[in-house]
Amino acid sequence: MASLRCPTCGHLFETDYTPAMPFCSERCRQIDLGQWLDEEHALPVDIEKHIEEQANRQFDDEDSPE
Description:
Blueprint: E1 3-5, E2 12-14, H1 26-37, H2 47-63
Antiparallel strand pairs: 1-2
């Protein structure tokens, strides 16, 4: 059996006894989901690169025959 810390509450729990891995409970899983949906968590994004890719994609779509 392995022990882990819940990323939401920090509680130490046994991985074999939770249906909500990697969280200690379904409640902590739902809290984490809410944080992602409220944009409290986010993946790092290079905004300048993203804007450039979007601009290039628009030009490519306009040039392609339908």
